[in-house]
Amino acid sequence: MSEQSITKPLLVTIVSALILAPVTSHLAVLGFQVWRDSKQKRNQSEQIFTILQTEIEQNLYVLNREIAMRYAKLKAVSRLFELRVAPGDTPSEEWDRLLYATMEDGAAYFSTAIVDSYILGNRSFLVDNPALSKALVSYDTNIHQAAHVDTWDRNLKTSTLVPYFIKNGSLAQILATDPGRPDGTRLHTFEIEHDFHLDSSMEHSTLVDNSEFVGILAELSEIQRVVLGQFEDLRQELTQLQATLKTEMQIQSNAH
Questions:
Q1: Distance separating alpha carbons of residues 220 and 84, to the nearest angstrom
Q2: The whole model's pTM is what?
């Protein structure tokens, strides 16, 4: 075999290697960039999923508290209607406690900063699961709607119920039954300043014979049912979303 026949293939190999070297290098760099971008996306997804889980847990705590309070309010209204038919020897203090329960303040202050940031910040690229992405949009919409519905109850209290008690009873006497909350707060004490009967001891059992008050109670009861319907649906939705997020986080963790 001649020297020329050996040198020619070797030359072709060397030239090919020189030509392919930049391409191979470029592909390696590109592959590293893809890996790095994918890792960065997974890290961002994990971060937002983790804080979303915390936000959902906080909102579930609020929902559970609010739902329990509103069922207690419905129970108080039902008891007042029962006493309207058969008052018996119900003590004045029980009437006042029941009336106080009708004024119990809702505190449905939901945390939405994280899900709002996800929606408004157009971070849907962080979620590869279309069902989860759709669920997050639904969550954002429904939790804001629930907060809006909650204001109906607060508006009825401030615009109708409190003025009625000020005019026809002793608001201070009713508020005195407030057992207080864990943080030491009470209902709006400024309302006592506008009470026309601060120093008198009033019998409130006659209020349930007043058609205006009966109408207020009926409206209050209906509002509680609407709010409870929204809150119950939202609680179920958040519980399901919480489980979906947990599964998605597990999948991403296994992909590392």
A1: 16
A2: 0.73
Six-digit token string for 192: 């006592």
The domain segmentation of the chain, as residue ranges, is 42-255
Q: What is the pLDDT of residues 30-52, one digit of tens each?
A: 454 544 445 555 666 677 778 88
Instruction: Compute the distance between CA of residue 1 and CA of residue 6 in angstroms, rounded to an integer.
Output: 8
HSE, side-chain direction, 13 A CA sphere, residue 63:
24
